[in-house]
Amino acid sequence: MRHVIESVERGSVAYRHGLRAGDVLVSLDGEPVVDEIDYQALIAGSRVRAVVERGGEERTVDIRKQEGEPLGLHFGEEMALSPRTCRNNCVFCFIRQMPPGLRKTLYVRDDDWRFSLMMGNFVTLTNVDDAEFDRIIRRHASPLYVSVHATDPALRCRMMNNRFAGDILQRLTRLKDAGIRFHCQIVVCPGWNDGEQLLRTLSDLRALAPAAQTAAMVPVGLTRFREGLEPLRPFTKAEAEALLDAIAPFQEQCRRELGTTFAFPSDEFFCIAGRPIPPESWYEDFPQIENGVGLLRRFECELEEAERFDLPGDTPPAKRYLIPTGVSAAPHLMRLAERFAPPGVSVRVLPVKNRFFGETVTVTGLLTGGDVLSALTPDQVADADELLLCSVMLRHEGDLFLDDMHIDEFRRRAPLPLHVTGCDGQAFYDALRGRFDD
């Protein structure tokens, strides 16, 4: 592909070598440039040979620079990474369980290895043809984050409703042989890929270590909008306990032989099972924190660190805080609030049932503004002065809940004054002491 150079930073490497806006980039080091991934990989070295077209004629520019130094070129939209969409129809896909009428961005099913490399998004690798897979190898895209779910070919095809999904082990082996590392994800569905199938999947992935770095297990999330979809059910307490017990010997073997636990259940499994969250050391360096693996433990560690480095100061105002949160996290948050609240400050945690998606959805990040407001009944707010609301309920811009309710509307309708706090332990520690950024 050819890319028109829209601008060149004055004084940059490219500018000093005579490149100008309007030039057309033809190739770098003899290779065509597909997108930003190719461009960044090909300009990383200390010598770059660029072929550009100007006035209908091609010219070669040999560039010398510091390794890793940018060229200073800027391109249009054709160089940008537009998310590639998913070709699967997974039986557990959360987006297919979304109600109609929400903002369009909530229905995007991305499955793009480039975003896996750059931002840690999980990908199935089912929409990557041979030529594109060769590019992954050539660009040494490491680490990747791969949604595996099952290594049994027939089961993976069935779970993903894609007859071409069964070659995951072959593809992961090619990544390993190329020196590419990857983290794995398993969405576990009772009666599908749990039990012996889960142990098989974990064993197959363990055989690819150390290229296979970790395997995270998360329980299937089910909403009430599943009409016409494959029948699935959530984990029971007994099933969550059985899963944790079944993988324990495997984890111990991995610690002995690999020096890592390798297989990490998400916090939600411990919440469902009613078991305590493991200690910080168990999570090593929290490699799958975005999957909810160790999120509660890290939150507590951040609180402990905030307390350890807190400087003596003014006595915080006496307040009575009410904290709406998801059902699964409520007991843990209450325990931490009681432990870290300063004298004179009382805290009550309000578990909010998810009416919007269904009560089987218990995580805080999927609560809507409407559900939180409905839970703030007169008897619930009678003994509180202010609300503390975790920003995880809002989109990245901090303005909208999942039901498109704006935070300003929520404030107007809320029966108590509101503070939105960050999701980390330091922000929560400060909030308990009346230190707010809003």
Would you give an account of this structure?
- The protein has 438 residues and is α/β, with parallel strands linked by helices.
- The chain has 15 helices and 13 strands.
- The protein has helices at residues 13-16, 36-42, 113-119, 130-138, 153-160, 168-177, 195-206, 237-257, 267-273, 295-308, 330-340, 369-375, 378-381, 407-413, 425-432; strands spanning 3-8, 24-28, 47-54, 57-64, 73-75, 144-147, 182-188, 212-219, 263-265, 319-326, 345-352, 386-390, 418-421.
- A five-stranded antiparallel beta sheet has the order 4-3-2-1-5. A four-stranded parallel beta sheet has the order 6-7-8-9.
- α7 packs parallel to α8 (237-257), α8 (237-257) packs across α9 and α10 packs across α15 (425-432).
- It starts with a strand and ends in a 6-residue tail after the last helix.
Task: Briefly summarize what is shown.
The chain has 438 residues and is of the alpha/beta class. The protein has 15 helices and 13 strands.
What topology does this entry show?
Blueprint: E1 3-8, H1 13-16, E2 24-28, H2 36-42, E3 47-54, E4 57-64, E5 73-75, H3 113-119, H4 130-138, E6 144-147, H5 153-160, H6 168-177, E7 182-188, H7 195-206, E8 212-219, H8 237-257, E9 263-265, H9 267-273, H10 295-308, E10 319-326, H11 330-340, E11 345-352, H12 369-375, H13 378-381, E12 386-390, H14 407-413, E13 418-421, H15 425-432
Parallel strand pairs: 6-7, 7-8, 8-9, 10-11, 10-12, 12-13
Antiparallel strand pairs: 1-2, 1-5, 2-3, 3-4
Helix pairs in contact: 7-8, 8-9, 10-15
